[in-house]
Every structure is written in structure tokens, then in C-alpha cells.
Amino acid sequence: MMQTFEAIWYALIRGLTEIFPVSGGFHTQVLAQLMTRQYEAVFTDLMALGLALGIAFYYRKDIFKRTYKKPALFVQGIIASLAVFILWELVGNVLLARLGGVNVFVATILALVSGIAMYYWPQFSHKTAKKGQVPDAGQWTCFVATQALAPITGLSSTGLLLMFAQKCGYNAKKSVKNCLCLLILPLFLTGLKILVIPDRFSYLTENLSLMGLSLAVTIAATIFAISLLAKNLKKRASLRVFGAYTIAFASIVLIFELSK
């Protein structure tokens, strides 16, 4: 069973690294090796639920406005989000599961490549977003398609979306909001597994206080991370700082792996 410190630590790291474009899955995989026990699947589901709730709370006003003022756009977003969830399940729980997952060494190389890509990625546009600017059918398709790579440990769902948003000409503020809102539903559906899979639900009911604390920490970390990400991209208009961090972290892990 997870100890309180371990659960809080996982929740904090997951809440921050899933929002920042630095691959939350990679950080969790590395962290799991350093802790006394491998993290349980129920905890991963709970973190997904916390992330969804945190993003939804942060952008609650935007979501409310979009629902009532732009219903067509809202429906398009729901359809795209459902497609993302299906891709996550097919790639993560079917394809990668059959292949045995991604080991730490391969994940480290992927994270290193991802970090280099973000470091040299062009800056976001400084122009104010055009009023009424929305993704067209081709952009929706490409936004969803990027998520086929997201379940691969070492790659970042947020990073993939932000890089594509930059290529579409969106400024930093609009890119962060659109990308994170697109992830609310798939994260929420992933989190609901904790209620429908018997062994996970049993673990939840037996450890309600610990799980509740972890959920609260994840939500708080998510809200903080979104605020920090939005401010950083508004000021710097690039992913360079996240690329530099990913390169440094992946390099340390790679050295550790090679020294075994």
C-alpha cells in the first residue's frame, strides 16, 4: 500500500508534469523506480481525474461561454476529445500493452528527442487571436492525430498539442487554453475507470482518505501548473525553457541507465 508521503509526491509530480510539456508519464516511470513500490493503476486513474477537474476549474468561465455562445464549437470539441480518448485506449492499453510497454531507456531517448524538438521549436505568434478564430476540420483532425503518440512514455500530450497549435498560428494564450480543454474529457473518462474496474474501486474504498488527499493535491498542482505555463508562454512565447529542462532531466536519467 502506498504511504502518505509517496502518494502526495506522486500527485504533486503528476499534476505538474502532465500540464507542463515535459512528459508526465516519463517522470512517473522514473519516480516509480526511486520509490519503495511501483505505483498502482488506481492511483494513475485518480491522477487523471484530478487533472481533468483542475483544468475544468481553471477554465470554467471559458467552458461556460463556449457551451452557450458557441454550441457548434463545443460539440466539435467534444467529438475531438472522444476521439483522443479512443486513441489513448487503442495505443496505450492495446498496442503498447501487447508490446510490453516502453522501458526506461527507450522512454529516456524519446524524452531527449522531444526536449530537443521543443528547444528549437519556433516561437508562438505575438498577435492577438482573431475574434472567432476556431480550428477548421483539418486542424481538428491533426490535433487529434497528435494524441496517437501521447501514450508513448517519453512524449508529452501537452507538448505535442502546443507544438501543433504554434504551427497553426495560434498565440500562446489561445494555444494553452485550447490544448488543455481538449484533454479534459479524455482525462475524465480515464479517471472514471477507478469506479468501474472492481479491484481499483475496492482499493479506492479501502483508502478513501489517502486517495482523497492525493486527488486534492493533484487538482491544486494542476491549477498552479496551468497558471505558471500560461504566464511563461505569454512572456517567452516559446517552449525553449521546457525543452531545456526535458533535455537536462533525460540526460541525467540516461547517464544513470548507462551506468547500471
Task: Explain the overall architecture.
With 260 residues, this protein is mostly helical. It has one domain (4-258). The protein is 78% helix and 0% strand. It has 13 helices and no strands. The longest helix has 29 residues, at 71-99. The radius of gyration is 18 Å and the shape is globular. The model has no long low-confidence stretch (mean pLDDT 85).
List the helices and strands and how they pair.
Blueprint: H1 4-19, H2 24-34, H3 41-58, H4 60-69, H5 71-99, H6 104-119, H7 137-146, H8 157-167, H9 172-191, H10 193-196, H11 198-206, H12 208-236, H13 240-258
Low-pLDDT segments, ≥5 res: none
Rg on CA atoms, Å: 18 Å
Task: List SSEs in N-to-C order.
Answer: HHHHHHHHHHHHH
Distance between the termini: 28 Å
Annotation field: number of helices: 13
| Structure summary, number of beta strands | 0
Mean pLDDT: 85
The domain tally reads: 1
Helix content: over 70%
Descriptive key words:
0% strand, single chain, mainly alpha, 260 residues, 13 helices
Short description:
This protein is an all-alpha fold and 260 residues long. The chain is 78% helix and 0% strand.
